[in-house]
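Researcher: Please predict.
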Amino acid sequence: MTLESGLESLKRGEFVLLFDSAGRENEIDMVAAAEFVTPEHVARMRQHAGGLLCISVENSLACSLGLRYMHEILAGQLGPDKEMVMGLAPYGDHPTFSIPINHYQTYTGITDKDRALTIQEFAGLCYVDNKKKKFASSFKTPGHVPLLIASRGLLHERKGHTEMSVYLAQLAGLKPVTAICEMMDAQTYAALSLDKAHKYASQNGIPLIDGKELLEYAKVH
């Protein structure tokens, strides 16, 4: 079963590929558990995926850190220009972006080493007592790693890569924080097709999880 092999891959600190659905973004993301991310993970996502590398965060953890959605923050700041703020995306969901961060020990924040440090250290907040204080003292914004806040009801509320990746981490018994990056196609200048993603997954021994399978599993369990 692809889901079982995907969970085992995450537990080993390896990648899974995650497809949402043809009726939504129709995209495949490379996903890794944030707690295991190394510079090698970041380099591979940068080279083999090429989209925006983000951290997906479980909703209650985000709330404990005082995080808010970026569209909510901006709506209160832009005044008459708030019409610029994205409401629903073309595929029907609200964006999950919050603030972009760097760990305070990074230099520029964008190198593979810097982004890996930011991602790992953020995942480490799960085991801190005063999470909000530790977060504020350890991270700076604006930075080079955007945070994404998963919906409170996860797949019951929103069926995006943010929610699906956090749900996978929970199923694997890992910290509910993931690193995700969309897979792009340099030949078509569009998102990587599902067919090409299957080929990449097969050639590299990476499980490819279909969002439909994950949604069916969530319904049953």
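Model: The longest helix spans residues 112-123.
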